[in-house]
Amino acid sequence: MSSLTLRPCGDFRTSYKQDNTIFETKTIRRLAIIAILVLCTAPAFVDGYVLTLCIQIAYLGIAAMGLNILVGYTGQISLGHGAFFGFGAFASAWLNTSFQIPVFLSIPLAGFLTMAVGMMFGLPAARIKGLYLAIATLASQFIIEDFFARADWFSGGSYGAAAEPLTMFGVVFDTDQSFYYVALFALVTMFIWACNLLRSRDGRAFVAIRDHYLSAEIMGIKLNKYRLLSFGISSFYAGIGGALYAPYLGYVSAGGFTIFLSIQFLAMIIIGGLGSVKGTLMGVIFMVFLPEVLESAVSVLKDTDWGNVPMVIDGLAYIKEMAIGLVIIGFLIFEPQGLAHRWAQIKNYWKFYPFSY
Amino acid sequence: MNFELLTQLIVNGLIVGLLYGVIGMCFVLVYKSTKIVNFAQGEFLLIGAWVCWAALVYLQLPFFVGFLLSLCFMAAFGVLLQMVVLRPMIGEPIISVIMITIGLSIFFQSLMKWIFGVSPQSYPQVFDTQNINILGLNIEMAYLMSTVIALVIMGAFYFFFKYSKHGLAMRATAFDQQVAQSLGISVKNVFAMSWAIAATVSATAGVVLGMVNGVSDSLSIMGIKVFPAVILGGLDSIIGAIVGGGVIGGLENVAEFVDSQYLQIGNMYDIAPFYVLLVILWFKPYGLFGTKDIERI
Question: Cα(A123)–Cα(A231) distance, rounded to whole angstroms?
């Protein structure tokens, strides 16, 4: 179907190949390429602060995509994704400082190490599901967090670990402007990988398990294998995200990878839309900009007469947390399919405008 | 080996375990009747304890009046929460239900931090004596009271479910919602009632714990610590919650003891239950008393 330039107004696909394409039309493919090119030029005209937010979106987005593969596509629940993200961050710093592995190699290696740890904790997950799995992953979150605080050889204990900046081909990526390209490259690669995974046999097996695991098993899908695989892939994504975080900030401390981070990842994919790679990114963007918007709202309030009270100004950190809770509740009640669904609806509205029937 | 310390620790652990059992019972009650996993259980303790504290300190009420007031507040709060937030979630996939209670938990935790601050506050003195000596063991008065309260609550649960009409209605709803509905039971009321009971009983536990350690946002951790207890006992068994609570409470302290005497790893008190939890889930996912669910296509 990629020979078309405009999307047809119905489902006219006649072959599996058409059903499987990433880009439905030529226009979409061109637009995607243009979008990436525009993003590449962004450091030239965007100020540093926005650039840090973009980098944040990239590494959180990679981890959140992994969680979406697990939750949105395989229908498993994980409350320990933040810990795996942290494990990736520590692992890349550890591989680099202890074994002198160059950072550009330690990032994928940290991903694989996190994958191994994730699969270890995922072993019980192959047997249990739903609520039990949620609680098991909650336990793994606390166990890994405790490990960070204790394993001095790995994470530096309560002091944290220092991480070297990324160097490749003699170029040091230690500024926002240069690291932006690394983050963008990683994000695009992982994005395409996720899209490709989901149109392969394994991806379809994941979706089958999510939709009805007993039927999937009867149709010959090995439940244990695919649940474990999905767990591994999601931890791999989390590890890569974390491994990018370490050389970017230059320092990893154990305090940042609490259950709250795991919940934020879950919030991202719920806001974006479960089972949508594109939606994940929308959710991440939403969650990264939400605190910023709140912050500027509070600073606007500060100048008004009734807003200038210590309750509002000192309570900013709590207001941010409360907003995250409220956003989760609000989206689940009013927009359970997330931003991706809303985006599709807006697109449809304009496509059929003014004859919406 | 220090036997005296060990016995003291085990007794303390069992007393705290009884409280875990009470909180676990609320959890199981909500899970059984409404099929909702309540990750915001700890926040019920927190809100109850803070409301009671505010009633005692700001309004200067006598303890039992303030306590009853906070229980009434929590009952209303539980019903309201069920009506506004959780009723739209009926029939949604389990991930949504879990996430909405997690959302509630974050929201109320930070709301309480916002209103009451992060530093622990202690209750005004309720008992004259702090410690009491039973059979050579030193037991805090508040712990003794918590044991009595826990046992009273457990007895009350037993009689409520065994003999009262509402209790029967709740058991019927837990057994089969549609059949219960066809027999004239208002499932809506049963849902609201189970949330109200869970909220009030958790608030009681919160007040008791607040009297021992002071009220602070660390109370909400109890809502997470109750998971190992509940999973050990079986998610849908009230007896299981009590047994699991006792075992986990004792185990925490034994792990702490073994660690401080021999292993020197540190932090075992908080982490040991989660290792146990993973082991249970590995070998016996439905716990000691839980019913194994059988699924058909």
Answer: 9
Number of domains in chain A: 2
Nearest to A237 by CA among A72, A97, A96: A72
Q: Which of A142, A215, A294, A319 to substitute to test the interface with B, most B CBs within 10 Å?
A: A142
Q: Which of A142, A324, A332 sits opposite B106 (nearest CB)?
A: A324
Global pTM value: 0.89
Q: Which among A222, A248, A267 is the end of a domain? A: A267
**Which range marks the domain in which residue A34 is found?**
1-6+21-45
Instruction: Give the one of B94, B104, B275 whose C-beta lies nearest to A130's C-beta.
Output: B94
Do A39 and A91 lie in a common domain? no
ipTM: 0.85
Domain ranges of chain B: 3-283
Residue B132 DSSP SS3? strand
In this structure, whether the domain defined by B3-283 belongs to CATH 3.30.1330 is answered with no
Query: Quick check: helix, strand or coil at residue A301?
Result: helix
Q: Which residue has the higher pLDDT, B53 or B121?
A: B53
Integer Cα distance of B243 and B16 in angstroms = 12
Query: Tens digits of per-residue pLDDT, B136-178?
Result: 666 777 777 778 888 888 888 888 888 888 888 888 888 888 8
Kindly state whether residues A125 and A155 are assigned to the same domain.
yes
